[in-house]
């Protein structure tokens, strides 16, 4: 990384290893925010219906490529949504023939569009065996969702009940613990072997549950995993800015567009952060005096974990204020991007 006269920062083009692009008109609207910044992105398969086989994944990839602005160089890395009925052979074929980059594990009803998710980890044991054998990464939304578990305890319970036994049974399965939100998860990842890594979102670095719930409720900060305590936020900031190779960039940008006549009655979890994500991460690294590790987190650790070549292209930031859009519209519907209306210290030179 070069910092020229403290005014410009140049790093390798980053990758976003956790992105929801949705489909159709929303896909067309949101994709350029990601593809203008990031060289590659792992595309989440939780569409309706979900992407559960090679054919649907291939068609979705084509729709993404058609929606891509012609001057953007961007590679979507496709994932397969696991269900109780996943066929291990489909997973193996998809991975070995480069249709699937990874498989995504959502437990049933753990978050949006997961009613077809896995009901019991044993239902996919054959698939997990195959994935371990062929070196295919398993991406996990790490939350337990039984009715008795408090929403703030879901991630920690997931570690005890699912992750720990999973790692014991499949010690060489490559696992990404997605969008971690607690200090306990940070410590667990640091202490585990090199087959486990984690993504961290900008919103979990910027905010804690007081930001969401204190004084006034801010629905546009509602996401899953839900924001946790200040001590958790602190641990996440420390981990990502430490240079540790097990933590890398995955924004979990999850756009939701609402038509709100006076009031939106149901707010789904998910934060649309693609318009501000890279500047938000940069701000965290600057505040933590860790700019020297910004490139590792954004452009190297993830690619290395996934055995991808590092991007050759570069991206430059200039120390010049940039205001994030207040609102993003699609037809009559609106979305509020993460940090809407806030001024960031740096801008991207596009
Ligand atoms: C995501 C979405 O809207 O698809 N929402 C979220 O709060 N993160 C799903 C997910 O990744 O949990
Ligand atoms: Zn997600």
Automatic annotation (TrEMBL):
Binding site for Zn(2+) 2: 104, 141, 179
Names of the cofactor(s): Zn(2+)
Chain residues that bind Zn(2+) 1: 18, 20, 104, 252
Species of the source: Candidatus Tachikawaea gelatinosa
Cofactor remark from the record: Binds 2 Zn(2+) ions per subunit.
Name of the protein: Dihydroorotase
GO biological process terms on file: 'de novo' pyrimidine nucleobase biosynthetic process; 'de novo' UMP biosynthetic process
Signal peptide (UniProt feature, chain positions): none
Gene3D superfamilies the record matches: Metal-dependent hydrolases
Active site (record annotation): 252
Binding, substrate: 20-22, 46, 141, 224, 256
Cellular component GO terms, alphabetical: cytosol
Reactions catalysed, as given in the entry: (S)-dihydroorotate + H2O = N-carbamoyl-L-aspartate + H(+)
Keyword Hydrolase: yes
Gene designation: pyrC
Family to which this protein belongs: Belongs to the metallo-dependent hydrolases superfamily. DHOase family. Class II DHOase subfamily.
Protein purpose: Catalyzes the reversible cyclization of carbamoyl aspartate to dihydroorotate.
The protein's assembly and partners: Homodimer.
Cell inner membrane recorded as keyword: no
Molecular function as annotated in GO: dihydroorotase activity; zinc ion binding
Modified residues (N6-carboxylysine): 104
